[in-house]
Amino acid sequence: MNDPSRDADTLAPGHGPAAPGPGLSGFSELSELSGLPGLPGTSDPRTAAGPSKAPRPPAAPAGTAPAGTDPADPSPPVLAPELPAARGPITTLLFERLVRPPHRFGLFSLPLMSFPARFAGPVLADEDVQLALFVCYELHYQGFWGVDERWEWNPSLLEVREILETRFEEGLARAVSCPPAPRPGDTRRALVELVAAAEGPDLSVFLQRQADLAQFREFVAHRSIYHLKEADPHTWGIPRLRGRSKAALVEIQMDEYGGGRPGRMHSELFRTTMRGLGMDDSYGAYLGRVPAITLAISNAMSLFGLHRRHLGALLGHLAAFEMTSSIPNACYSRGVRRLGGDEETSRFYDEHVQADAVHEQVAAHDMCGGFVAQHPSRAGDVLYGAACGLALDRLFAEHVTGSWSRGLSSLREAGTTIGP
């Protein structure tokens, strides 16, 4: 796993001063939140040549609602994050393009084709590749401040994304052992056996029993990349399904989106957890801090969700996600409470203990089983998607626990300590 030496500083959120976390007793004083410095030797896309743009409005202080928001809806208007600092030649030149008006450009203007040695190493740990792909995908979600929305379907950018995706898929294929395709009626059993055979360090138990506050905040910063848009990548699958599998996916997603209640959306519950831990809960606040493996976890979801050919893998990925959720989330909840967190701060994890115990049955039997019944030849795709999710989680846990065992931060460019 690519793990350059980092200072052993603890986590500092990324934008502006934080209010004291209301859900964490004993931590009334928080340090100021540090900015996200660029990496040496790379250009900051926010200063690249291009049209001037108004500064991004500051995020609301933690624990407060922005002026003008509906009091019945706790979610603020999403302020798209700024592009993070580049991490290599691909992101440097890509970001310099994105801050300009949409235009066509040749592939040889980016170091994708002209520098094939860039892909000689493990792609899942390549900071430059994973960030470039993540940014391409994020244009289909909330986008970035100062990046024209028309870039989303720009033909030249899609060509770049295709090359990055090809390398990413090759990396997944090398890292994941493809399970044998089950018989259509054995899909649920095959998923259960695959999950039971998964190996790797038990990060959830460490967080429950041993992690200090700084380490738990680091874990939450990693997870914020997905949880602040929880369920969105898998929702791409809904219009591509029919019958029982579609109804099952909708049932799962309805719970993820709070059953129509904004405050119960899982992404909103996670924001509450972040505020309770004294962290910046704005969308994408920690994008510049997380390493390649964290980005790869989200990139796999977007890859599967945005391509109809990967529909089976998308469903298998979600099934594995749900089937490995309840027990770890119970550990996370106990860890939060051990560190002084209150009921509001742990509610996100408590909600998943209950909801995902039901979801895992719906996902494996009705969603995946129904899909394979309609498409028997794609049973192997379902297991492959599940195997990808399990493998990436293992690599993530190895990175985090390995960093901590060496006294290092699991994040990039660790900044100022927060806490009393």
Automatic annotation (TrEMBL):
Matching InterPro entries: Haem_Oase-like_multi-hlx
Q: What are the TM regions of this chain, as residue ranges?
A: none
The superkingdom listed in its UniProt entry is: Bacteria
* Pfam families given in the database record: Haem_oxygenas_2
Q: Output compositional bias ranges, type Low complexity.
A: 12-53, 61-72
Where is the segment annotated Disordered?
1-83
Official protein name in the record: Iron-containing redox enzyme family protein
